[in-house]
Amino acid sequence: WTATDACGNTTTHTQTIAVQDTVGPALITPLDLPTDVVCSNIPEVPVLTFEDNCSNQNISVSFEEISTYTGEEEMYTITWIWTATDECDNDTIITHNINVITENFIEESFITRCYEDGEIDLYDELPFGYDTDMEWVVETEGISIVNGIFDPLEVELGDYVFTYTTTDNGCLKTFKLTVNINEDCVVLPCGLDRIKISKAVTPNGDGYNETFNVTGAADCGYIVEVKLFNRFGDVVYESDDYQNDWSGVSPSSSIGSAGRLPNGTYYYVVVIKESGIDPIAGPIYLGTK
Q1: CATH of range 105-182; options 2.60.40, 2.60.98, 3.30.160, 1.20.144
Q2: Which of 46, 151, 187, 280 yields a CA-CA distance of 20 to 30 A from 269?
Q3: What backbone torsions phi and psi does residue 232 show, to the nearest 5 degrees?
Q4: Per-residue pLDDT tens for 189-245?
């Protein structure tokens, strides 16, 4: 300020005011975020807007996410941190924590392999989109795998279960694979022409035709089912796993003497189980004298 009197004398007074910005930017975006979610419902990170009491032209906003998730927890925490800085280096920090409950999404698949088909690389069975950085887990007791390789020759026929778990956007994702090992690839060298059936049974001790025989099936691994009938249609003998041991004896002693059937013509029905061969029927002569 300058003061001047009537004679032109002046006096000058000067005051210097130093203006300092010591307040950080203020948040003006509504922050409406959940604090507890399941992993499939984690919200998108919002874009926050700030204003400054001195200047809104040079506000910088940085973002950082911190998670306690390691891939094994049933619950973990995500922390979001926004830092707004004005041109005077004043900071405002906004922090929000979200508690996340882990879900496990399970996808299942079933495949069949013959035990002679060779080793199975389980990683080749993973659906598209699965990473291959994790390890397969054997759920069936008594077997083991190395680097995801399963060898059917080392196990019995049957079903074997494996699981593969990875992470997907904070959730668990498990692929459950059941492998059925069978022997369908084994071609048995048997047909109807290989099956031979007795035409007569004469159990007299001479070593010939002592029993009713069905040959050729056992060599191929087939099980033979036999039923024998008399001329009236009564079942005189039956077996679900015939061992070529019927010598004319009925399971009931009411027919013939001491269970021995009388001489005559009987009729058989032979079923070669799981062979694809139709049941075979025909007559058989029994001579017991």
Answers
A1: 2.60.40
A2: 187
A3: -95, 0
A4: 677 888 899 999 998 888 888 999 999 888 778 899 999 999 899 999 999 999 999
